[in-house]
Automatic annotation (TrEMBL):
Domain GGDEF: 112-245
Record-level GO BP terms: cell adhesion involved in single-species biofilm formation; negative regulation of bacterial-type flagellum-dependent cell motility
Organism this protein belongs to: Scleromatobacter humisilvae
UniProt name for this protein: diguanylate cyclase
A Pfam family reported for this protein in Swiss-Prot or TrEMBL: GGDEF
Classification via Gene3D superfamilies: 3.30.70.270
Enzyme class (EC, first level): transferase
GO molecular function, one term: diguanylate cyclase activity
Catalytic activity from the UniProt record: 2 GTP = 3',3'-c-di-GMP + 2 diphosphate
EC assignment: 2.7.7.65
Transmembrane segments: 15-38, 44-65
Keywords: Membrane, Transmembrane, Transmembrane helix
């Protein structure tokens, strides 16, 4: 069975559908031809036998198409799970960083602005311990929803791991990044979240880093955002902190 699946994976469902139809048409044509050539009683017998094989061919063709579709759906599901976080449905860390690599390269090439926000759901571990994992998961989903309402269409949102979300803001300068981060913080804290008649206060700490010429890679920008996030936590949480301000080359605007 596994060998057949490997064979099916090498071709598209359209290919196998075409092959199955060709088999069915060929079987019917062969059955008709045999019956006409033999004639009489022998012709009827030959026609019956050939039609039996034609029917078997159609059944087999249907099975091949069905199996090919199952294989295609399985492959699509595997690809989806490889890039998406199972809880939030957002891009996972690996896929997010792949997308940010492209944005980072574009910013460096054309001198465009861009910003990375690392967002930590405050005290999520404590909530998990006192109210349970289901409550913590539901709270993270609510935080994700509230963050999403503040973003623009081209902005990238992902689950970065554990209690952390990540946002990349294309064409966003340092002041714009700080404004966006503050909007997110306020939106998350705008109202308590209710879990089984218990009001849970949701807040986030946010670290901001923006693209600048001193960054050698996306890893450097992530490190700066992580440092800024740690500063926000040390400042008491529920606040925004940014990385160091560094000038651009060629007299361009400064960027964080």
């Amino acid at each position: 069975m596994s060998g057949l699946v490997k064979v099916l994976e090498r071709r598209s469902t359209r290919f196998w559908a075409g092959a199955a139809i060709a088999i069915a048409i060929g079987s019917v044509a062969a059955a008709t031809g045999m019956g006409l050539l033999a004639g009489g009683r022998a012709g009827l017998v030959a026609l019956s036998v050939a039609l039996f094989f034609a029917l078997a061919g159609l059944v087999l063709a249907g099975m091949v198409i069905r199996l090919a579709r199952i294989v295609a759906d399985t492959r699509a599901s595997q690809v989806l799970h490889a890039v998406d976080d199972h809880l939030t449905g957002l891009s996972n860390r690996r896929h997010f960083l792949e997308l940010v690599e492209r944005e980072f390269a574009r910013c460096r090439r054309y001198g465009d602005d861009g910003a990375l926000l690392l967002i930590d759901a405050d005290h999520l571990r404590r909530i998990n311990e006192h109210l349970g994992q289901l409550c913590g998961d539901a709270l993270l989903l609510e935080v994700t929803k509230r963050v999403g309402t503040t973003l623009r269409q081209p902005d990238l949102l992902a689950r970065f791991g554990g209690a952390e979300l990540a946002v990349f803001l294309p064409n966003t300068d340092p002041l714009g990044a700080l404004d966006a981060a503050e909007r997110i913080r306020q939106q998350v804290a705008s109202a308590p979240y209710t879990w089984q008649q218990t009001h849970v206060v949701a807040t986030v700490s946010i670290g901001v880093a923006t693209v600048h010429q001193g960054q050698l890679s996306v890893d450097t920008m992530v490190h700066e955002a992580e440092q800024a996030l740690e500063a926000a936590k040390e400042a008491g949480r529920n606040c925004v902190r940014t990385g160091p301000i560094k000038p651009r080359k060629n007299g361009e605007r400064v960027s964080t």
